[in-house]
Amino acid sequence: MNVAQDHCARSFDVLTMRLQPVFLLAPEPEKTRAQFSRRALLASAVAAFGVGWGLGSATRGVVGRPEVPGPEPLPPEDEALVAWAEGLQSRPVAQLVSDRGAFFQVYFRFPSSRQRLRSGLTKLAAAVISGAADLSEQDRGLIARELLQLPDLVAMSSGAEPILSLDQVRELRLLTR
Q1: Would you say residue 9 lies in a domain?
Q2: Predicted structure pTM score
Q3: Which letter does DSSP use for residue 37 in this model?
Q4: 8 Å CB contact between 106 and 150
Q5: Tens-digit pLDDT profile for residues 42-71
Q6: How far apart are alpha carbons 139 and 13 in whole angstroms?
């Protein structure tokens, strides 16, 4: 072989050199453990709920529920007015119609006694709607307006049944036109 061929062969070897990988060994990272697992979180939440419920149940038996005060008793003179209005409900419709102003004042003035005066309102509304009390159309319209202004006419705030049905209220509204 001559020198030129030898030089070419060596150059070719340099060009075809293969690189071998070198593996470097490093220590594996340590696994970090969770500070608080989901299981522990759930268990502590259930335990806290149980303790709170137990303490609440225990104190409810000891302390008790606060009593809801009933309506305060009316003074004797006010109770006499309410008794008069209750007595007026059992009288003839004509007298209830003639004394309706005072009856409405008692109804407005003593909200705690409104439940006791319901039958008078239904009796008056039925008389106005049916025209049974020998009322003129103008008087029927006036009394219908007065009845429609009463609180708790359709829905009692205490949750009791309404004083008048929706049909009766509709009839009263037609009389006011």
Answers
A1: no
A2: 0.56
A3: -
A4: no
A5: 999 999 999 988 888 777 665 556 666 666
A6: 126
